[in-house]
Amino acid sequence: MIEIKNLSYGYDQSLVLDGINLSYDEKEFLAIIGPNGGGKSTLLKLMLGILTPKSGEILLFGKSPKDVCKFIGYVPQFIPINKAFPISVLEVVMMGRIDKKRFGFYSKNDKKEALKALEIVGISHLANRRIIMLSGGQRQRAYIARALCSDAKVLFLDEPTASIDTRGQIEIYELLSRLNKSGIGIVLVSHDINMAIHYATKVAYVARNLVMHDIDTKDNFLKHLKQEHSHFCDVELILKECSCKKS
Ligand SMILES: Nc1ncnc2c1ncn2[C@@H]1O[C@H](COP(=O)(O)OP(=O)(O)OP(=O)(O)O)[C@@H](O)[C@H]1O
Question: Which residues does the UniProt record annotate as the domain ABC transporter (predicted)?
Fold first, then answer.
C-alpha cells in the first residue's frame, strides 16, 4: 500500500533523508521514531504529498500521494484553534467531508458519517460542544474522527499524544490499535518509544536513514534492543550499529 524506493530529501543542499526504502501495508501499525531533527515529520509530509522527493519514488495504493489524498486521513501535530470562532465538535469532524459538499452545503449523510466517526472515537456525547472546551485527549479524538469520516484507508498522525496525560495517551493508542485491527492503516510519528513499542507492529527508526524493526512481541523487541543496541535508552535510540537490515 505504501512503497518507498530510494527516497532522498533535503530542504537545502544537505540531505535530511537519504536513500529511504519502506514497504508498508495497512494491516500494520507503523510507528516512526528517532531523534529530534532526524527527519520523521519530513518523511510523513513526503508520504502525504505535501513535499516532493528530490529523488526516489513514493507510491500509495500504486499512485502518487497527491492522487490518492481521499484515502488518507491526516492528524497534524499542531492544529491552531481560533478561540473567537465558536465552532462545534461536530462541525470540526464534518470538515473531513469538505470535498463531498454539494453546492456549499453538507448533506444529511455527511452529518450521519460525522456522528458515526464520533461514536467510533467515543465522544459522540460531545458533538455539540465547542471544540475549545474539550480536553487535549478529547480534542485529539475529534481530529481522529475528522480524519476517519473522510473515508480514509490509512491515518497518518504526527505526535498524536503530545501534551496529553498518560491515561489519555493510553486511550488514544488503544483507539488507534482498535482502528488498525478494524482494517485502517496507522502510521504515526512518536517520541514515546514505550507506547510505540507496546502498540506498534512495526517500528521505523529514522535518522537520515531508516531502519525497520518488526515487533512480534514487546519482550522480544526489548531483548533485541538489549542484545544489539547496548546504549539503548528511553529517549535517544542510537541504532547506528544495528544488525537489522538497513533499507
Ligand atoms: N521547512 C523547513 N525548512 C528548512 N529546514 C527544515 C524545514 N523543516 C524541517 N527542517 C529541518 O529538517 C530536519 C528534519 O526535520 P523534521 O521536522 O523532519 O525532524 P523530526 O525528526 O520530525 O524532528 P522532531 O523530532 O524534533 O519533531 C531538521 O534539521 C529541521 O531543522
Answer: 2-233
